[in-house]
Design goal:
Blueprint (H helix, E strand, L loop, with lengths): L9 E3 L4 E3 L19 E3 L2 E3 L6 H4 L7 E4 L4 E6 L8 E2 L16 E4 L1 E2 L6 E2 L5 E6 L11 E6 L8 E5 L7 H8 L17 E5 L2 E6 L21 E2 L8 E2 L2
Antiparallel strand pairs: 1-2, 3-4, 5-6, 7-11, 8-11, 9-10, 11-13, 12-13, 14-15, 16-17
Length: 239
């Protein structure tokens, strides 16, 4: 209890001096961190770590995520983000029931080239870990050896064609977003305002094959094809 500095929260019993922490429990009495729900990261007491967030970032019913960049609790519930939605921590990515998923991670993504992070250096998108035959349209493009935001393990993911489109544009098509005729700016970054199937003025995106577009369920679903639709321009989903 004599060691209350966040960068010297451990009492070294050989030196009889306060030194850097090496265990979460040593941060209980650190200044600015009352109680027991705190963590030690690289020798410094912080609000939380991804490993400690279950106790460091409590909430009803599932708790909140820990931002791995700032080591602070967020206001985003764990498991509350769906595939291709923005995130800043792996635990925010959930399954179809909105529960935390061991098969999904918050992944760094790029657009319009593989040198430019999208939308910024701190934000990722929830993607499913790749397994042969395990990807589903429109997330059927294998993204290889990519880092997640909470883990330094390189993995492959089920993703999108990052040189043509963004997760934001894919979700706009999936949610049937409207746009003003001829106004691509009404759609998210990389999005196009086009006639999609039999629907007029919907947000869609460029494609090279139908696997990049929505699944054809039910048959004839708008957005499940990849073509030019007589526009004379690039192919897009629903064309």
């Amino acid at each position: 209890s004599a060691c209350t500095a966040v960068d010297a929260a451990k009492c070294d019993l050989e030196l009889y001096a306060c030194v850097s922490c090496d265990d979460d429990r040593q941060c209980d009495d650190a200044e600015g961190f009352p109680g027991t729900a705190n963590a030690c990261a690289d020798g410094v007491c912080v609000d939380c770590t991804p490993e400690s967030e279950a106790t460091s970032c409590p909430g009803d019913p599932r708790g909140f995520s820990c931002d791995p960049t700032t080591n602070t609790c967020t206001t985003t519930e764990v498991g509350s983000r769906s595939v291709c939605e923005t995130c800043i921590a792996d635990s925010e990515c959930g399954d179809e029931e909105g529960m935390p998923s061991d098969d999904d991670r918050c992944v760094e993504m790029f657009y319009p080239n593989m040198e430019t992070r999208f939308p910024d250096e701190e934000t990722g998108f929830c993607l499913k870990i790749f397994a042969p035959g395990g990807c589903d349209q429109p997330y059927a493009i294998q993204i290889s050896e990519r880092l997640s935001l909470s883990d330094d393990t390189l993995r492959d993911y089920c993703g999108i064609n990052e040189t043509l489109t963004t997760c934001s544009a894919v979700r706009a098509l999936d949610t049937n977003a409207d746009c003003t005729p001829g106004q691509d700016d009404d759609c998210p970054e990389s999005g196009l305002c086009r006639d999609v199937g039999g629907l007029s003025d919907k947000c869609t995106y460029r494609c090279t094959s139908l696997v990049e577009c929505l699944p054809n369920m039910p048959p004839g679903r708008p957005g499940s094809t990849c073509g030019a639709s007589g526009t004379g321009g690039d192919d897009y989903c629903g064309g």
